[in-house]
């Protein structure tokens, strides 16, 4: 529920494989542009990541942006 509150260009959180990431610092570094990340803002970016970046080592790229783990009831 808290993740859904973070979906503005200056405050972007997404979930990915059960973890929560603050994507704000990476927003303008993404090669596809900020719009790509904003598509998943406040929600789960796993399906988009798996579709376009299956070969990328996500932990090496965004691991330092992890701010938590999804609660079991979410």
Q: Can you characterise this structure?
A:
By secondary structure, this protein is α+β, with helices and mostly antiparallel strands. The chain is built from 3 helices and 4 strands. Strand 2 (11-16) and strand 3 (19-22) form a beta hairpin. It is globular and about 30 Å long. InterPro entries: Cyt_B5-like_heme/steroid-bd (IPR001199), Cyt_B5-like_heme/steroid_sf (IPR036400), Cytochrome_b5/Flavoprotein_Rdt (IPR051872). Residues 1-71 form the Cytochrome b5 heme-binding domain.
Quickly describe the structure.
With 74 residues, this protein is α+β, with helices and mostly antiparallel strands.
How do the helices and strands line up, and which of them pair or pack?
Elements: E1 7-8, E2 11-16, E3 19-22, H1 34-38, H2 46-53, H3 58-62, E4 66-69
Antiparallel strand pairs: 1-2, 2-3, 3-4
């Amino acid at each position: 529920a808290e993740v859904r509150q973070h979906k503005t260009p200056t405050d972007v959180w997404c979930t990915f494989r059960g973890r929560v990431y603050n994507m704000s610092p990476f927003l303008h570094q993404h090669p596809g542009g900020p719009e790509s990340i904003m598509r998943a803002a406040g929600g789960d970016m796993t399906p988009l990541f798996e579709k376009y970046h299956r070969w990328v080592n996500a932990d090496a790229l965004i691991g330092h942006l992890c701010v938590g783990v999804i609660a079991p009831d979410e």
